[in-house]
Amino acid sequence: MILPRKSSTAASIRSILTVVLAVLLAFLAGRWSGSDAHVRAAGGDPPQIEVRDINGGTSLVIFYPTEKKVYVYQTPFVGLPNWPCAYSFTLGAPGAPINRQPCPSLQ
Questions:
Q1: Percent of the chain with pLDDT over 70
Q2: 27 occurs within a structural domain
């Protein structure tokens, strides 16, 4: 014996309205929770990134203007995606000597 199938239109409309009401209540609760905190991005200039030919090989050069520091990653596009920094240097006054410092080991 086959039972007649009940109409599920009312049930589906009820479930859609329940979901919409839950989302609306969650939005309103977050909106009026009394929190005035805003998320802000960190200040400062964004880093400048270049791919350059240094000593016959490809190097990734990243300059952080706020720190006046340059990091050099040698052959970053060869092998596994483990790019240890080769060396860095800090920019000082124009004409001042540049001292390369080895990057700290990540191990």
A1: 78
A2: no
